[in-house]
């Protein structure tokens, strides 16, 4: 399978690394970046032929020629320009996979008519092979292509196939949700420091706690059961959990997840109008 990455930034390079880890032949991949420095770094790190647009204005067109899958890492406001640039070079049978936040399948289809389009939303742990990649495909995308794409992206983490109507919830729970975990960790560190713990010790302890909790969740993805198992009546954990409940933690989290999802819908509307 021939794969092209157009506009390969941090997230694109993370997904590309995962795709290579899943067994894709690096010689069957073409990537583009904006700067020559970035192209040299990406080519050296991943062994993928990489062309910089600043060195070759036809780099994107060259990269997509003959491609079966074309990953777009460009910003949402650059999609229309990129589609125009690729016109005539992009194969009719190529599946276009967009990583652009806040761009729905209808807008993608308007930019790339008569081609199968897929929308993915990865989160940052994809850079270490433990990401979550939400995947919503247009009806025209063949099932075999979705299976192949799922297998390839599996090198970067868990691929979750969803209907596009579920994308806002996945953004709130996973794509943006990573930052929510980080913020909780940030506050836990600050709380421990305020009680006299050295900051470096607090940072290391909280990071290790998060990693251990994540591994337990991966083995048994039932957070309520795991929480219950460690919460003894009248104990220290129960006291902390009770404090969370009194302060309305469940409602706070629900509002944050919804706010992220609602903002994604607003962005979709803005990008349709733009």
Can you describe this structure?
With 274 residues, the chain is α/β, with parallel strands linked by helices. It has twelve helices and eight strands. It has an eight-stranded mixed beta sheet with strand order 3-2-1-4-5-6-7-8, with helices on both faces. The longest helix is centred in the C-terminal third of the chain and has 25 residues, at 249-273. The model has no long low-confidence stretch (mean pLDDT 96). One of its GO terms (cellular component) is cytoplasm. It is an enzyme of class 1 (oxidoreductase).
What's the topology here?
Layout: E1 3-6, H1 10-21, E2 29-33, H2 36-46, E3 50-52, H3 59-64, E4 69-72, H4 79-86, E5 95-98, H5 105-111, E6 117-122, E7 131-137, H6 143-153, E8 157-161, H7 167-175, H8 177-194, H9 199-219, H10 223-230, H11 236-246, H12 249-273
Helix pairs in contact: 7-12, 8-9
Summarize this entry quickly.
It contains 12 helices and 8 strands. The chain is α/β, with parallel strands linked by helices and 274 residues long.
Q: What do we call the CATH homologous superfamily of the largest domain? A: NAD(P)-binding Rossmann-like Domain
Order of helices and strands: EHEHEHEHEHEEHEHHHHHH
Helix segment count?
Answer: 12
Strand content: 5-15%
| CATH class identity of the largest domain | Alpha Beta
| CATH fold assignment of the largest domain | Rossmann fold
> How many β-strand runs?
8
Structural class: alpha/beta
- Helical content (DSSP H or I, runs of 4+): 40-55%
Count of the domains: 2
By CATH, the architecture of the largest domain is named: 3-Layer(aba) Sandwich
Sheet with the most strands? 8 strands, mixed
State the end-to-end CA separation.
34 Å
Unreliably modeled segments: none
Cα radius of gyration in angstroms: 21 Å
The backbone outline, from C-alpha atoms, is: elongated
- The average pLDDT is 96
Q: List the strand order in the largest sheet.
A: 3-2-1-4-5-6-7-8
Main location: cytoplasm
Family: Belongs to the pyrroline-5-carboxylate reductase family.
Protein name: Pyrroline-5-carboxylate reductase
Organism: Brevibacterium jeotgali
